[in-house]
Automatic annotation (TrEMBL):
Membrane-related topology note: Single-pass type II membrane protein
Species: Meloidogyne javanica (Root-knot nematode worm)
Swiss-Prot/TrEMBL GO biological process terms: protein O-linked glycosylation
Protein's UniProt name: Hexosyltransferase
Family of the protein in this entry: Belongs to the glycosyltransferase 31 family.
First-listed, main subcellular location of the protein, grouped into a coarse class: Golgi
């Protein structure tokens, strides 16, 4: 979100409202425009604000095995501030400008919506206004919905997450934890963390030293690919946004490792490029090229697309595979069984 808001501030800073929405969200734009004119513009007169489904204060997840783990040094508080449900929300231009002025006052962590609409919004005194009547989860629209002056209230936006009613903070934190865990299991990107640590120490640090750099990305490389120019395609890129014929070398997005100094270097160049809808291409390809970040090939040695064999290649007595992704399995149980196989892998003789 930081890069997107930086881009907005540079190229369209006069926008009255800015909307953040996931790619699996459906928005009725004429109806959205109606309710902005009818309601949000009036509420905006009160000051900088975000509009959407507001989550009450919830607890940070402190389990290092969880995808949404937040260490104490990144967020020492016991409860997150109020923040916007991340599938879709919008803010007025004053809110975006204010939070971007305060980004250096907060430690970044891996939950953008909480960071920008919670932590930074608190620092910048940006209001979070509940518009939950206009948002609906899980595409569960009724044949008839509540209207006002002939315009439906409840069908303005459809988002994939079920947005529940008010609950106690403890319950909310537990439900959020379970929801995020389910999402992690749903997408099936399985990582064996202990084995990952082993190969970082045994191999990746050595590769950095040999390349005489501290700027590195390790993963499954994608090379010799071209932009999609078909406007009907989800990943369409216009020549205005990306005029080159070929993409740079970049990393498959299901899993890769980046050094901390590489991330710092990449962030220094975010205002120099057009934002593209392929984030992994943007970060590990386009921006990496500008800062000479080395992309190390992990390939199917360490990152496997597919299904494990009973025995896999080992080095130093350790299986070299630690990451599985995009497996077309039918259930969470199947993913758990596959993780068990990953954990208990035996070496080829």
């Amino acid at each position: 979100m930081g890069a997107a808001y930086q881009w907005q501030q540079k190229f369209c800073s006069n926008a009255e409202f800015v909307m953040k929405t996931d790619d699996d969200t459906i928005v009725d734009l004429p109806r959205l425009e109606f309710w902005i004119d009818k309601k949000a513009k009036k509420d905006s007169k009160k000051g900088p604000a975000f509009f959407g489904v507001v989550y009450g204060k919830s607890k940070p997840i402190r389990d290092p095995r969880n995808k949404w783990y937040v260490p104490y040094e990144h967020f020492p508080g016991n409860l997150f501030p109020r923040y916007m449900q991340g599938a879709s929300y919008f803010g007025n231009g004053k809110a975006i400008k204010l939070i971007m002025q305060h980004t250096k006052e907060a430690i970044g962590f891996n939950m953008d919506d909480i960071l920008f609409t919670g932590t930074l919004a608190e620092i910048a005194n940006v209001s979070r206004i509940d518009y939950s009547v206009h948002f609906r989860g899980q595409f569960n629209l009724q044949k008839e919905e509540k209207c006002e002056e002939g315009h439906p209230l409840g069908k303005n936006m459809l988002v994939r997450f079920v947005v529940g009613g008010p609950v106690k903070d403890e319950e909310h934190g537990e439900k959020l934890d379970k929801m995020l865990t389910r999402e992690e299991e749903q997408y099936g990107d399985l990582v064996h963390l202990n084995r990952l640590d082993f190969w970082i120490e045994k191999k990746f640090r050595k590769q950095l030293k040999e390349a005489k750099t501290e700027l590195g990305v390790f993963g499954y490389s994608i090379i010799n690919t071209q932009p999609v120019r078909d406007e009907k395609d989800k990943w369409f890129l216009s020549k205005k946004v990306y005029p080159q014929k070929d993409f740079p070398h970049y990393m498959h997005g299901s899993g890769y490792i980046v050094t901390g100094k590489a991330i710092t270097a990449l962030m220094q160049h975010t205002l120099e490029v057009h934002a593209v809808p392929l984030e992994d291409l943007l970060w590990s390809g386009i921006l990496a090229e500008r800062e000479n970040v080395v992309r190390f090939e992990g390939g199917n040695d360490h990152f496997l697309e597919g299904t494990l064999e009973e025995k896999e290649i080992c080095e130093y007595g350790k299986p070299i595979i630690f990451c599985l992704y995009q497996m077309a399995l039918s259930s969470i149980k199947a993913y758990k069984e596959e993780y068990k196989k990953l954990h208990e892998l035996k070496c080829q003789e």
